[in-house]
Amino acid sequence: MAAAKVRQPAEAGGTMGVKLIVCDVDGTLIDHSETVIPELIQIVDQCRKEHIYFSLASGRTKELIEDIRLKLHVTEPYIAANGACVFVDDTCVLMKGFCADPIRDIISDANRVGLTVTCSDAYQERALSVTDYVAEHRKLGNRFKQLLDFHAVDWKEQKFVKIMFMDEHRTGKIERIRKALKPYSSQYWITTYSDVAVELGPVQCNKATGVRELAGLMGIGMEEVMACGDFTNDLEMIREAGIGVAVANANEILKSSADYVAASACACGVIEAVKKFCLSGNGVP
């Protein structure tokens, strides 16, 4: 575990000069149950009382962040689609989209062999077909209300912020997609999630670029940011933030790059780090 960077206390902000906390959502603020624990809400409210902003940086699209954002009382601008979008309330103030026309045959092939393929613009995520994964989330009522008609898309003009290929049953088919995408690594930001999924985003765009944009909007320097995460897509923002935190359930790559590795997992790890580096202790639950 690396020692946390130490700075002089600021007049406004946390005890170590933190003025903005940015947290990943899945695996960091919530686990698979997607439950927002009351203690986390209390910590977010306490941050606001101490003039520390609390924001989100997620791979989710706006529609999938909204419920969690409201439960946490987060009113600050936030990052969606792994840095491709910055939202202020309901408005996307920054979008870095990409054209998927060069890989449309790969997308078609993945859909044909039964993989889940989802395409996201700034506001919503749509699947090409009803796979088991899509059907399950439709039952939950919060995703994939509409499908994307492959043949109706103008692939040369349509801009996406994220495309996901998923093999939820681990059949090995995701490997053929990963290999097919390899020649396009200079055109897209490609993230592999074990043998389950491959995600595409805009090139030279990640959560760190999103945090830089977010901090710039708020007049805050990266050295005044604490970022918390659990997975490889959080790596760049963990490295670039003034304090980078890995929760206990984070993968080893992230832990090795973090300034602080929390003893607790998910939200409890975030609470631990916020109390340690940001809050004065007065009125902290």
TrEMBL record:
User: What are the UniProt keywords, alphabetically?
Assistant: Hydrolase
The region annotated as signal peptide is none
Which InterPro entries did the record assign? HAD-like_sf, HAD-SF_hydro_IIB, HAD_sf
Source superkingdom: Bacteria
Q: Gene3D superfamilies from the xrefs?
A: 3.30.1240.10, HAD superfamily/HAD-like (3.40.50.1000)
Q: Which GO terms describe its cellular component?
A: cytosol
**Name this protein carries in UniProt:** HAD-IIB family hydrolase
| Gene Ontology molecular function terms on file | magnesium ion binding; phosphatase activity
- Family annotation (NCBIfam families): HAD-SF-IIB
